[in-house]
């Protein structure tokens, strides 16, 4: 098992010793039970256990413009998993492929699933020539393409056939772009084109937007310390708050705000590079052959080779002020709460607001505010605000109560497993003889701020947060993290907070000035622009 790219990320003081002991016990049990397995099965078993407990340090293919971090591609047996919440893809039963790490689910190359593509293919009557792969999701692959009509590079998102008919992402983006409001609109990606392509797995919607440099998640994960420069973090947060305020002013809840959906834009100068120059600077496309375990012929609709995502980004600590212009991606979960009530969240479990579990009321703008606050914390520091291994509903609720205090009484009574962590006053349950699932240490807001932000910044050689900014930052986030949705600050109120006016907006203005932007002074925005 190759662990060269695996490093534990959680600060030791934030790791629950009971859970660590459980993980070590599982590893010992695994070692005693897999001794008769094949090497690849042992590798997979151990890697699944390690993945459960340690976040991997993301490794990328060599990039000539930054220090190279080599990528190790493993080959392990892989079985296509059934079912997709957004479609009814008809997967060939029993087919197994050699596992190729860091690529899309090969089992989704089937009727209703992904469209098979390769570098060099041309789409939309030859207009877009695929240059490299940018990434993938559960319902799409995204490619860097050369627009042969307008000399520029674009991102082409090719959606799975089953999801193509139901997605309203393109229409949502188009509607937002048509708005006459200005404040925060720049966070919405321009929709450059939309077309359809037919293939062996069905008919696929394709959406064309400007290409992104990287996601904030990738920037942090590729970095040793997982931190942005303080001014850069402040500017990104200010942009994000302004962008969410714009969405809400247009009656749009994003529904899936997290670091992976916040993208740093590529500089326009990339359009000046020819394809050979692009490859010289960022590396040639890399691929690996798709092989069945039984060595039989691949089914129709499965590509002969699959490509790894390119890396055009920089590590978080290397992103300079003036280079951090962001866009918010993936509007596939967005909705208008006045027209399309929604009662469940599909965002990451640790970012889901408590009402998704305890309330019968539909989600609204306030659910975005909760998720926005969690994301802001992670941009500002090193670690997430809420963090637990095996993030079940109970563990997520436990984290929320540890940090923010006892739930509202009607929700507290609904939580039937609360006594495993807390007494009836919301304190850690230390009653003798009562089974408990904690180690006796409450990891408070203050402790998490100290370890995940202050100590992390000091270790990275960055300026720590002043007491004045810390108080303003905490006040802003706590106003966004009220348990009751109706008590949370609105996006407009967050814009008007002390932290935004004292730190966020000044950093954004400094960024605009340093990048010679013509956007002008943000202090001159009139009050009606906030409505």
TrEMBL record:
<dbReference type="InterPro" id="IPR011009">
    <property type="entry name" value="Kinase-like_dom_sf"/>
</dbReference>
<dbReference type="Pfam" id="PF00069">
    <property type="entry name" value="Pkinase"/>
</dbReference>
<protein>
    <recommendedName>
        <fullName>non-specific serine/threonine protein kinase</fullName>
        <ecNumber>2.7.11.1</ecNumber>
    </recommendedName>
</protein>
<dbReference type="GO" id="GO:0000245">
    <property type="term" value="P:spliceosomal complex assembly"/>
</dbReference>
<feature type="signal peptide">
    <location>
        <begin position="1"/>
        <end position="40"/>
    </location>
</feature>
<keyword id="KW-0732">Signal</keyword>
<dbReference type="GO" id="GO:0050684">
    <property type="term" value="P:regulation of mRNA processing"/>
</dbReference>
<feature type="binding site">
    <location>
        <position position="157"/>
    </location>
    <ligand>
        <name>ATP</name>
    </ligand>
</feature>
<keyword id="KW-0418">Kinase</keyword>
<dbReference type="InterPro" id="IPR051334">
    <property type="entry name" value="SRPK"/>
</dbReference>
<keyword id="KW-0547">Nucleotide-binding</keyword>
<dbReference type="InterPro" id="IPR000719">
    <property type="entry name" value="Prot_kinase_dom"/>
</dbReference>
<keyword id="KW-0808">Transferase</keyword>
<dbReference type="GO" id="GO:0005524">
    <property type="term" value="F:ATP binding"/>
</dbReference>
<dbReference type="GO" id="GO:0004674">
    <property type="term" value="F:protein serine/threonine kinase activity"/>
</dbReference>
<feature type="domain" description="Protein kinase">
    <location>
        <begin position="128"/>
        <end position="500"/>
    </location>
</feature>
<keyword id="KW-0723">Serine/threonine-protein kinase</keyword>
<dbReference type="InterPro" id="IPR017441">
    <property type="entry name" value="Protein_kinase_ATP_BS"/>
</dbReference>
<keyword id="KW-0067">ATP-binding</keyword>
